Amino acid sequence: MDASSLAMLGIILALLCASAMFSGTETAFTAASRAFVTRRAKEGDRKAITLGRLSERKDRVVAAILVGNNLVNTTATALASALLISWFGEGGVAYASLVMTALLVIFSEVLPKTLALRSPDAAAMRVVPVLSGTMRLLGPVADLVNIVVRGTLRLLGFKTPEADRPGITEDELLGAIDLHGMGHAGPADLAARQERGMLRGVLALDDMTVRDVMTHRSRVVALNLAETPEKLLARVLASPHARFPLWGRDGEEILGVVHARDVLRALQAAGGDAARMDLAAVAHPASLVIETRPLREQLQDFRKAPIKMAMVLDEYGSLKGIVTLEDIVEVVVGQIVQRGEAILGDLAENGEVEVRGDLRVRDINRELGWDLPEDEAATVGGLLVARQRGIPAVGAEVTIGFYALRVLERRGQRIDRLVIRPLPAEAEA
């Protein structure tokens, strides 16, 4: 083999390496996480800043990489054909086609792209100098290519694609949240499941209204001025709550909100005589909100309000219930128990669990990893009533999706306790 053949082989090898570099760079650039790049750029990483700037015109960068990759691939194939023709005559063309196809696919495409996909974020940071150099050399050619492509699309009647999307969509973010912690086991899986629930809760604030989290008036511990001051004091002392709605005429007249500290002040002002307490004098003005108000707006109001409780009204102005800051926080962190009260009963061997009828469906799904429908009713008792289109009797069992719900106890027309049992795989099928 003479010196010219060795030199040509060296050039072909260098071109194959350049092709591998372009292929790996393209994969790393397109697969890099935008969230990762943005975070590193905010931390002051100069490579991330450059990468973020290049990502603003992703079509231009990809065009430049493809121009460079095809240029080196074509040149390498042409040189290999010339070399093998000099060795084997006209049959060298076929040999060159087979050999270069194998080398380009294995070593210049699959191998570098596989390596880049193993850690695309780190790979993207390493290839920033390559991207910058490619754009300086081939950027004008890439612009010309994009002009031709856009013109061709217009002639064919297609809309011109945007250079890049404005940002990550909520669906993509939810998908990323679902992937968080997948594959973990034991305590790590429990922690990841709780984190996923909190992240979904933050995103849910925009889609939920006050009605979705309020406490219905039938379960509100309130102070009714129609009762004696002694009874009101006893109710405050017996309740685990710190804030109480103050109303008259059984809730038809909203007088304000009373904090437990206000009750103590009123008792002190009365000289310790509970019969002389005047709770109306120490009550704070009540905040009134409509039940369809977005939860995020109510959260912003609570941040500035001295009393973190509001009275919820329906469209007719009637009192529906109350909403507190804790109700909104529970959307993110899950239900907050009081005085050691368990959120759920103990799971039986067959997976069934006893719950209160007023327990919210999303809290059950969050705690047990279930997927009961959350868009039909806020509480599990309400879900059962909605599916039955009526109030089921004690002992009645209803199948909802892959779960069986059985009524254990009713209090008046309200479902007080029920049992939920996941159905076996055969029943699901």
UniProtKB/TrEMBL annotation:
**Positions of the CNNM transmembrane domain:** 1-195
TM stretches of this protein: 92-111
Decide whether keyword Electron transport is in the record.
no
Residue span of the signal peptide, if any?
1-28
> Topology versus the membrane, per the UniProt entry?
Multi-pass membrane protein
Instruction: Please name the PROSITE patterns in this protein's record.
Output: CBS (PS51371), CNNM (PS51846)
- Please give the SMART domains that the UniProt record associates with this protein: CBS, CorC_HlyC
Localization in the cell: Cell membrane
Domain named CBS: which ranges? 214-274, 277-339
Specify the domain of life of the species encoding this protein.
Bacteria
UniProt keyword list: CBS domain, Cell membrane, Membrane, Repeat, Signal, Transmembrane, Transmembrane helix
Q: Does the keyword Transmembrane apply?
A: yes
Family stated for the protein in its record:
Belongs to the UPF0053 family. Hemolysin C subfamily.
| Name this polypeptide is given | HlyC/CorC family transporter
Q: Give the organism, scientific name.
A: Falsiroseomonas tokyonensis
